[in-house]
UniProtKB/TrEMBL annotation:
<keyword id="KW-0645">Protease</keyword>
<dbReference type="InterPro" id="IPR011650">
    <property type="entry name" value="Peptidase_M20_dimer"/>
</dbReference>
<keyword id="KW-0479">Metal-binding</keyword>
<dbReference type="InterPro" id="IPR002933">
    <property type="entry name" value="Peptidase_M20"/>
</dbReference>
<keyword id="KW-0378">Hydrolase</keyword>
<dbReference type="Pfam" id="PF07687">
    <property type="entry name" value="M20_dimer"/>
</dbReference>
<dbReference type="InterPro" id="IPR036264">
    <property type="entry name" value="Bact_exopeptidase_dim_dom"/>
</dbReference>
<dbReference type="GO" id="GO:0006508">
    <property type="term" value="P:proteolysis"/>
</dbReference>
<feature type="domain" description="Peptidase M20 dimerisation">
    <location>
        <begin position="198"/>
        <end position="345"/>
    </location>
</feature>
<dbReference type="InterPro" id="IPR047177">
    <property type="entry name" value="Pept_M20A"/>
</dbReference>
<comment type="similarity">
    <text>Belongs to the peptidase M20A family.</text>
</comment>
<dbReference type="Pfam" id="PF01546">
    <property type="entry name" value="Peptidase_M20"/>
</dbReference>
<protein>
    <submittedName>
        <fullName>Carboxypeptidase PM20D1</fullName>
        <ecNumber>3.4.17.-</ecNumber>
    </submittedName>
</protein>
<keyword id="KW-0121">Carboxypeptidase</keyword>
<keyword id="KW-0862">Zinc</keyword>
<dbReference type="GO" id="GO:0046872">
    <property type="term" value="F:metal ion binding"/>
</dbReference>
<dbReference type="InterPro" id="IPR001261">
    <property type="entry name" value="ArgE/DapE_CS"/>
</dbReference>
């Protein structure tokens, strides 16, 4: 590894070691870690902080402006500095040690945030630092938007959008985390695909609550609150939302059809006609394909009585709902209530955000992304639109830009993707270094 790459890797590892963990309950957050992260950025990226204008917004989010030759039609590069909590005992390597494992092409950094999302944040800064040091001036303004609470409320990004909107800023292109370079996701496809999110699913938190008078567990009623709640949960699990093919997913299959083996090639080429039958099969082929073709629901939390011998006066389940574009918060709420079909179980929306608008998968903004990928990630990597399965801070930018995309320029294996928000999060060093080149090409393209 050359000295420049080694120095970049050392900076990434230092920033990964700062435990910027966010919690929904902000009283649990160690804000000194975020302060330390800010200070480390200033020290590690002196050229960025010499030339770019920096603002702290919403408490701990950062907005940088790199003035270009023209202030109109700016580029916004997004990432977030916060990470999700860890259970250290589940990890093979200490989650904030940023250990290097292996050698050569397979050398890997193990750390919380390596992919989600400090890997992208640091790659962006590496690209900008090098360009500024080279004396470059972008053709148009470039903004760097780094949120501090993407993993919880996203309030930092919302505050940044409010500031930009007040100033009349209309970005020509916004890029946040999202899809990656993958293989083996779509059955039969023989090439690596750059999955560029042109929209993202909406998010809902729904509470199912059953109540009763309570009392001693030695004399339970015939139909206790916990049984009614369990019945409601099972009904919801057994009656998933219907499958359907939305336009970006149809376009994805049309794009990869020429690179597909066997009879699936004809199926994908004719997806407008074969789609209704095909999407009924996808849920059986894995959770990622299932999430591309339906609104999903899953119970993530359950709570009942305060003691082992106490009847629950209130039994509650939390349902995480992810809305496919075309479904709305209101329509999903109505459907869940119909499925639960129990007047004694309340179905309440605790929090919700609609699915984002669609960004185009043609035109100048899309072409700019594809060109940067082709130049740096491999000419054999095929760029395709898709629906971002998780939520990101980018959804707030749809209020000020028509071209909002979600793509992380790293080749990630299935096991690496599965480690996000789980234990053993990691990224291969060579893939991270390619990401720096991608951001540099995007800025200068």
């Amino acid at each position: 590894m050359d000295p420049e790459a080694s120095a970049a890797l050392a900076r990434l590892r230092e920033l990964l070691r700062i435990p910027t963990v966010s919690y929904a309950d902000e009283s649990l957050i160690d804000w000194s870690s975020f302060d330390a992260f800010h200070a480390a950025l200033e020290r590690l990226y002196p050229e960025v902080h010499r030339v770019l204008e920096r603002e702290v917004i919403g408490g701990h989010s950062l907005l940088y402006r790199w003035r270009g030759a023209d202030a109109a039609d700016p580029l916004v590069l997004m990432a977030h500095m916060d990470v999700v909590p860890v259970v250290p005992s589940e990890w093979d390597h200490e989650p904030f040690a940023a250990d290097l494992v292996g050698e050569g092409e397979e050398q890997t950094i193990h750390a919380r945030g390596a992919v989600d999302d400090k890997g992208a944040l640091v790659a962006i800064l590496e690209a900008v630092e090098a360009l500024v040091a080279d004396g470059a001036t972008p053709a148009h303004d470039v903004y760097l938007s780094f949120g501090h609470n993407e993993e919880t409320a996203g309030g930092g990004a919302q505050a940044i959008v409010a500031v930009l909107e007040e100033r009349g800023i209309r970005p020509s292109l916004v890029l946040d985390e999202g899809g990656a370079v993958v293989d083996g996701v779509v059955p039969g496809v023989t090439v690596k695909t750059a999955m560029i999110g042109v929209a993202e699913r909406g998010v809902m938190t729904v509470h199912l609550t059953a109540r009763e008078q309570g009392g001693h567990a030695s004399t339970p009623p015939a139909d206790p609150a916990t049984a009614r709640l369990a019945r409601a949960v099972l009904r919801l699990h057994r009656r998933p939302f219907p499958t359907r093919l939305v336009a970006p997913v149809r376009a994805m299959f049309e794009t990869v059809a020429p690179y597909t083996r066997g009879p699936l090639q004809a199926v994908f080429r004719s997806i407008r006609y074969t789609g209704p039958a095909l999407v009924k099969v996808f849920p059986k082929l894995g959770p990622e394909l299932n999430a591309l073709v339906r609104t999903t629901t899953v119970v993530t939390e359950m709570a009942g009585a305060t003691g082992a011998n106490v009847l629950a006066t209130s039994a509650r389940a939390t349902v995480n709902v992810r809305l496919l574009p075309g479904d709305t918060v209101a329509s999903a709420h109505r459907r869940i209530r119909r499925i639960v079909a129990d007047r004694d179980v309340d179905v309440d929306v605790a929090w919700a955000s609609e699915a984002s608008p669609l960004s185009a998968w043609d035109g100048p903004a899309w072409g700019r992304l594809v060109a940067a990928g082709r130049a740096t990630l491999g000419a054999d990597v095929i760029a395709t639109p898709y629906i971002q399965l998780g939520a990101s801070d980018s959804r707030w930018f749809c209020a000020i830009s028509d071209n909002v995309y979600r793509f992380t320029p790293f080749h990630l294996s299935r096991s690496e993707r599965e480690a996000l928000h789980s234990h053993n999060e990691r990224i291969r060093v060579q893939e991270w270094l390619r990401g720096i080149a991608f951001y540099r090409a995007l800025i200068t393209g």
